[in-house]
């Protein structure tokens, strides 16, 4: 596993998401101070999940056709998506946010 | 033991129409706790699929296009009996018996008609045979894809959403495209005029040629396959391929035979029930009573098929009335995503973020936000829909149009303030 530095905690306030240009790209969200990382490409078509609408129940709604995904498990919660999003481990150290990507992938 | 003269049978709910609404309905019947027999009847040979990709991904990126809603195991796991490739041909509303083309008779307790629509035929063009296509089914899309080759001259008849999506996909694939529209504008009533105008510019920038106010008088095909169309005003168009999208015809034959009340669709109440007790309808074919607006409304959108099928199936199981859904659709053209929600006939449109190339527009009538459009800006559709649903007064328009303000937060605080 490789660890990719994304940003400082202060750069991503609660309720916000951002795209991380790894391969494949990752969407990182701050949900009330907890960070979650999932694959950025919606499993339905080609929307960027980091542009999605963050719900109160720790899920994100795709900005194109409104499929919803659980940020904790990546599970597709409603149509049109049926396949889960890949999830990635996130760590926070000294106020800096990192995501874990498989070896060979990276920024 | 001798069999009872009227053996008690398990309760049975039947859904006719294996499209999006039909598949979502059977899934919902189980989810809502109906434990009896469920039968889904669809005349297409395929597993139920979604139609929106047919004019987009299925044509342009077929290798990665996904259309099937659920795989076969989904139905099997839920003990949903499927009859695909078989049409329902008879419906007796009094006896509650459905007859299929292969002779099977199914006695039901409740039945949902989700028979959707078919492309409206254009006999003048259909008479030409090969080289003329319409687009409603997966098979239509596969046939079109085979013929949409670079350099081919495509004539698109009808400047509605499907015609424009086909035009965009065809340009992307390198075909030459002319859109022939009877009216003087695109998108009929589905989009406000200014939006139709921006779409026209987008297509023109991608090399699509437009002919407006063109009513066809005659059509012919030469031995080499070249198609010639002539307008009533004498305009002449030549092409290798014609695709027409001139609206739909509703599949109401069964409903008519069963004596259900029809008026531009099967009329249903707020539970989705038709004039015949125990028979319901949802999706493109249903025109539902909306108590809030005091009108019957029929919609031909993915969102309506999804939402109405879910809520009518729930009503069939536990009797809860359907919540009205805000009209909403999207279209994808040349890699741009356009979404339209609420009333397209708003008095005035205000734009947020025009200069950035991705924008949100608010339709305002009577000082309230009644409609919204997002162009490559889907992230703002959700809060925009919330503003429409809450009928929030426009208030400080400047703040609403300032892209430095987060629309999600703005919507939440305005809805709170208005409550
Ligand atoms: C090319 C295309 C692109 C589209 N793009 C978009 C889009 O981008 N956004 C959007 O919001 N909407 C879009 N739509 C509209 C959307 O797909 C429809 O509103 C939706 O499919 C309606 O679903 P339905 O289940 O009600 O009807 P249908 O999808 O029409 O399904 C009905 C099914 O019932 C079957 N059937 C009919 N009669 C019988 C019978 N007697 N026995 C057995 N089976 C029967 C039919 O063959 C069909 O398979 C598009 C539609 C098309 C055709
Ligand atoms: S691209 Fe995400 S739901 Fe379609």
UniProtKB/TrEMBL annotation, chain A:
One annotated GO molecular function: 2 iron, 2 sulfur cluster binding
Protein name (Swiss-Prot/TrEMBL): Phenylpropionate dioxygenase ferredoxin subunit
Domain of life: Bacteria
Keywords, comma-separated and alphabetical: 2Fe-2S, Dioxygenase, Iron, Iron-sulfur, Metal-binding, Oxidoreductase
Pfam families from the UniProt entry: Rieske (PF00355)
Organism: Plasticicumulans acidivorans
InterPro entries: Rieske_2Fe-2S, Rieske_2Fe-2S_sf, Ring-hydroxylating_fd
Gene3D superfamilies the record matches: Rieske [2Fe-2S] iron-sulphur domain (2.102.10.10)
CDD domains per UniProt: Rieske_RO_ferredoxin
TM ranges: none
The Rieske domain, residue ranges: 4-99
Automatic annotation (TrEMBL), chain B:
GO CC annotation, single: cytoplasm
Named cofactor requirement(s): FAD
Domain of life: Bacteria
Domain FAD/NAD(P)-binding: 13-309
GO MF, any single term: oxidoreductase activity, acting on NAD(P)H
Pfam family for this entry, one: Reductase_C
Keywords from the named record: Dioxygenase, FAD, Flavoprotein, Oxidoreductase
Domain Reductase C-terminal: 328-411
PANTHER family per UniProt: APOPTOSIS-INDUCING FACTOR 1, RIESKE DOMAIN-CONTAINING PROTEIN-RELATED
Protein name: Phenylpropionate dioxygenase ferredoxin reductase subunit
Organism in which the protein naturally occurs: Plasticicumulans acidivorans
């Amino acid at each position: 596993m490789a660890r990719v530095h994304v940003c400082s905690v202060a750069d991503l306030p609660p309720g916000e998401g951002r795209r991380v240009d790894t391969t494949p790209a990752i969407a990182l969200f701050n949900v009330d101070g907890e960070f979650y990382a999932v694959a950025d490409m919606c499993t339905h078509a080609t929307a960027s999940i980091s542009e999605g609408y963050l719900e109160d129940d720790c899920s994100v709604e795709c900005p194109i056709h409104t499929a919803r995904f659980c940020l904790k498990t990546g599970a597709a919660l409603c149509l049109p998506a049926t396949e889960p999003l890949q999830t990635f481990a996130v760590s926070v150290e000294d106020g800096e946010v990192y995501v874990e990507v498989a070896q060979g992938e990276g920024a | 033991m001798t069999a009872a003269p009227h053996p008690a049978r398990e309760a049975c709910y039947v859904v006719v129409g294996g499209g999006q609404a039909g598949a979502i309905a059977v899934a919902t019947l189980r989810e809502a706790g109906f434990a009896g027999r469920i039968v889904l009847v669809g005349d297409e040979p395929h597993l139920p699929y979604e139609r929106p990709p047919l004019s987009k991904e299925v044509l342009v990126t077929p290798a990665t296009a996904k259309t099937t809603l659920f795989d076969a195991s989904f139905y099997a796991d839920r003990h949903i009996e499927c009859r695909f490739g078989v049409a329902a041909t008879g419906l007796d509303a009094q006896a509650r018996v459905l007859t299929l083309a292969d002779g099977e008779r199914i006695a039901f307790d409740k039945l949902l008609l989700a028979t959707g629509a078919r492309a409206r035929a254009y006999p003048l063009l259909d008479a030409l045979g090969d080289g003329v296509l319409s687009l409603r089914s997966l098979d239509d899309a596969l046939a079109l894809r085979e013929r949409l080759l670079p350099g081919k001259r495509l004539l698109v008849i009808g400047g509605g959403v499907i015609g424009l999506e086909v035009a965009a996909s065809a340009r992307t694939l390198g075909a030459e495209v002319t859109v022939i529209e009877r009216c003087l504008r695109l998108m009929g009533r589905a989009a406000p005029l200014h939006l139709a105008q921006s779409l026209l510019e987008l297509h023109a920038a991608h090399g699509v040629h437009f002919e407006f106010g063109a009513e066809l008088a005659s059509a012919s095909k030469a031995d080499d396959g070249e198609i010639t169309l002539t307008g009533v005003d004498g305009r002449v168009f030549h092409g290798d391929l014609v695709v027409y999208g001139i609206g739909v015809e509703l599949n109401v034959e069964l409903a008519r035979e069963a004596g259900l009340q029809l008026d531009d669709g099967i009329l249903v109440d707020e539970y989705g029930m038709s004039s015949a007790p125990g028979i319901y309808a949802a999706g493109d074919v249903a025109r539902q009573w909306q108590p809030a607006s005091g009108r019957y409304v029929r919609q031909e959108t993915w969102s309506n098929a999804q939402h109405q099928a879910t809520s009518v199936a729930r009503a069939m199981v536990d009797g809860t009335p359907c919540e009205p859904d805000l009209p909403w659709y999207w279209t994808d053209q040349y890699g741009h995503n356009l979404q339209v929600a609420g009333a397209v006939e708003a008095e005035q449109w205000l734009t947020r973020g025009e200069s950035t190339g991705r924008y949100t527009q608010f339709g305002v009538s009577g000082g309230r936000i009644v409609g919204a459009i997002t162009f490559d800006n889907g992230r703002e559709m959700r809060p925009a829909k919330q503003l429409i649903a809450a009928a929030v007064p426009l208030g400080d328009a400047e703040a609403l149009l300032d892209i430095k303000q987060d629309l999600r937060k703005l919507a939440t605080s305005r809805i709170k303030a208005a409550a």
